[in-house]
Amino acid sequence: MRRRNITAYGFLAPYLLIFAAFWVWPIIYSFWLSFLFTRRQPWTFNPNTTWGRLVEDPAFWNALKNTLVILVVQVPIMIALATVLAVLLNSTLLRARGLMRFAFFAPVVVGEVAYAAVFRLIFSEDLGFVNKALAAIGLPEVAWFSSPTAAMALIIMAVTWRWAGYNAIIILSGLQSIPDDVYEAATLDRVSPVRQFFFITLPLLKPVILFCVVLSVIGTMQLFAEPFLITNEGGPGSATETLGLFLYLQGFRVLNFGYASAVAYTIAALAVLISLLNMWAGRERA
Amino acid sequence: MRRAAALAPLMLGLVAASGAARAQEATGEITIWSWDIAAAALERVAQDFMAQNPGVTVTVEDLGNQQVFDRTLAGCAAGGADLPDIVSVENHEAEIFWAQFPDCFADLTTLGYDETAAGAFPEFKRTELMAGDAVYGMPWDSGPVVVFYRRDFYENAGVDPSTIATWDDFIAAGQKVQEANPGVSMTQGDLNGDTEWFRMLANEQGCGYFSNDAASITISQPGCVAALDTYKKLVDAGLVGAANWGEKISSNNAGTVASQLYGGWYEGTIRTGVPADQAGKWGVYQMPSVSADGARAANLGGSALAITSASDAPEAAFAYLQYALGSSEGQVTMLREFGLVPSLLTAVEDPYVQEASDFWGGQAVWQDVLATLPNINPSRGTPFFGDADAILRTVQTGFLNGEYESAQAALDDAASQIEAVTGLPVAAAQ
Amino acid sequence: MTTLPAAAPLRSRSRARSRLWRAILLHAVMVPLALLWLLPLWLMFVFATMPDQGIFSPGINLLPQDRFMENVRALEAETGFLRTFVNSVLVALVYTALSVLLTSMAGWALVRYRFWGKGLVLAIILGTLTLPYFVVVIPQYILVARDLGLTNTWFALIVPPLFNSLGVLFMRQSFSMMPQELFDAARVEGVKEWQIFTRVALPMAKPTLAALSIILFLASWNNYLWPLLVATQSHMMTAPVALGSLIGLTRVSWGAIMAGAVLLTAPMLLVFVFLQRWFMSGITAGAVK
């Protein structure tokens, strides 16, 4: 048994070492940091400037609000779209399936910076592609970067474009694990495809969809590159500033490590809480 | 300090002899971080400098304004590693560096930057570059604000810029200009959240984020309220097209904007950037004021150069500073070719300033720009500039989108937020 | 679909007609949606071949022009993009190799051995799955940048991101589905534990290793935040960091930035097209518990 222990930990050692150095230690250190005033050398113990400020800081609440808006609006839209996409892509009636899959799944491999650059360019207010296209079909141009609502819509569209296919892949794999005879029986009983979707497919997909929701929640909680690069650091003003971006700006623009650590802990706690809530809600109805 | 004393006589000679004497001994490779046209200017001066100092190699890296700030701060946080020898620092952000990382920069007084050398620059450029007895930056340029405008667009609308004295005049003129020139915006602003317009208007009205002793928050004072109100009036009148720095340049080139409000350093950006067929079509006039007899001068931007403590060749770096910034030769070259407004007092008196320019339709623009210098109110950045600016970004966007009842309410909110973050008191209402 | 019984011609005709209508409806939805989804990528390629006057011309232009190489040259002149591209390749390759090795070793230990603390190790791995990376990024940065002074090193780019729990779970699942008797037999024959792992188990896990490698490579290739923090000098930047630093710079044309985006994206699109099967199984790995 003891030799087993040694061999097992031999295999685990490099992995756990990295874990200890770059996760365990930082998590502990970060907790300590979150009580320090770090704006001036030397750092002093003063939780009023971190946790105390967090409670009252409108900028933090604004970032939290923006993140929750994305969570409540974008995540359901994207998951619904991904589910519909997965079902339609799985249809035997669909032609050019390879090309279709490519269209929706390709964004998954596109990096944040590359796609952020593209979105920033095509949504340019002055002579950008989207505004030119809108004008061409007689619609008014939209102030994508100056209007808070439009900028938020832009972020939501961008994130949906990037991640809908990713979730569709996961849901598709869940779909393919549903045995065909379930549908055959339903078809013989003349259950319409729409009813099949709601009464057979959806309930069977529930665990997979739940998994997608949890992933999306964690992703949204740390959304950073999109508002950083597309709407130019969360603009207009801070209308698209997310928790992830707020943390970055506090941590690495103002170098307020103590405050940023308190923000980081709050983000983590919220992510875990919302994930648990999702799982609990999912289990309840299953 | 002792070392400084020993070097002082040498340095005095240096200032008089335009930097060449001392620099002959200086050798080494120096790297500079800067941005946009400022980087181009440093590069150009570096050619002359290297011709006189064969032992020194100067490399200028143009990273863009925000990147220079971010990476310098990150480099200092990492203990000074990976920094270049010289960094460009905007005056209003300078104190952020000295407050958090005094050890990151070389005290220029130890390199020979004494009272005489420092006295060659105006007082308002020097305050933010000092911390206690130490001096961390040498002043470079300043940004007296004027309106750059397209003569042809104004003429099409029958608008004479010399009749524009107030912002209300500007709005009336703007409506005519936009009517007479379809597809052209009267002016542009970064509605994504930049605070430049507010800072220019507020500075004109003698107001800023903080008091000049950096001891209290003044953002809710009447001058700032008038500034924010004026900006909203301009935006609501539909005269401010949304454009960031890069988009403004595209619009200048494409001929879709009639005026830009900026510091004098924008002269070079326009002159060296626009297509040749726009030569002679541009002009300059004084910024309008809030009231008919109000002030018509403000400053935006203006930078300094600092030497990092990580530099391997601080003497060579300092020699470069002395040539580029401390000599009329260097500063006038940058003015002539890139439109950077010198803050060195002797350079302001250079005959070049009196020359009329063909590009500017025969106007002696520098005379007009520099004439506003004596009327500029000083404005202190303080170590908290970044915090205050981020808060104003948010509040300004909220105000422009109708979330506040009045500019006063918006700025009261901003002031109390800045108070919470900085711990400084809000100045009493006047 | 199962074949229809030949004895029901009438019913089958109406079913065929309803199938046709459903097919038309399906394509009426999917074709425009697919085109909309392809548009940003298509525009990226098109704009990469245009000068800025073309991109910002008043008309809408959807066809590529011939300026791609000029844009690439402009990009190279601005940032030394080639160098950052090579950096990205090196970082991603070394990262992938190390991470695959580390996670498969850990996954192996969790399948093959009973040992003290096994439950705890598993719990930690599962627990970190829902933990956002942001909670460690600041202290990680302080540790690497300030305490160790390792900014702009290969170590900083590659090692701290190595920890990932999904890989361990993926490998663990793969190993656990193998016939354990095979390993027991090898052990009885006196093969060393390390060799059982490298000579017997790893070769059997090839499909999983391929899928995991692709996902890890992609993650490293596209990683932005961490390299942004630790690579501050041009010569150590990865390609996404270099490209990100150009967004919003005036002297860099959008055509050049789009050319960079194409160079970053095209290799991964090829990987996606040609290795789709492994790619998909890598992505779905997490979902299969």
TrEMBL record, chain A:
Listed Pfam families: BPD_transp_1
Top-level taxon in the UniProt lineage: Bacteria
Keyword Glycoprotein: no
Gene3D superfamilies (UniProt xref): MetI-like (1.10.3720.10)
Family annotation (InterPro entries): ABC_transporter_permease, MetI-like, MetI-like_sf
Keywords recorded for this protein, A-Z: Cell membrane, Membrane, Transmembrane, Transmembrane helix, Transport
Cited CDD domains: TM_PBP2
Chain ranges of the ABC transmembrane type-1 domain: 64-278
GO cellular component: plasma membrane
Bilayer topology term: Multi-pass membrane protein
UniProt similarity note: Belongs to the binding-protein-dependent transport system permease family.
Name under which the protein is recorded: Sugar ABC transporter permease
Organism: Rubellimicrobium roseum
From TrEMBL, chain B:
GO CC, alphabetical: periplasmic space
Family listed: Belongs to the bacterial solute-binding protein 1 family.
Localisation per UniProt entry: Periplasm
Keywords: Signal
Main location: periplasm
Keyword Transferase annotated: no
Signal peptide segment: 1-23
Pfam families noted in UniProt: SBP_bac_1 (PF01547)
Organism from which the protein derives: Rubellimicrobium roseum
Descriptive protein name: Carbohydrate ABC transporter substrate-binding protein
UniProtKB/TrEMBL annotation, chain C:
Chief location bin: membrane
Organism the protein comes from: Rubellimicrobium roseum
Membrane topology: Multi-pass membrane protein
Localization terms from the record: Cell membrane
One GO process term, biological-process aspect: transmembrane transport
Family: Belongs to the binding-protein-dependent transport system permease family.
Any single GO CC term annotated in Swiss-Prot or TrEMBL for this entry: plasma membrane
Keywords, alphabetical: Cell membrane, Membrane, Transmembrane, Transmembrane helix, Transport
TM ranges: 20-48, 89-111, 120-142, 154-171, 209-232, 252-275
Record keyword Membrane present: yes
Residue ranges of domain ABC transmembrane type-1 in the record: 85-275
Keyword Cell membrane recorded: yes
Entries under PANTHER family matching the protein: ABC TRANSPORTER PERMEASE PROTEIN MG189-RELATED (PTHR43744:SF12), ABC TRANSPORTER PERMEASE PROTEIN MG189-RELATED-RELATED (PTHR43744)
Entry protein name: Carbohydrate ABC transporter permease
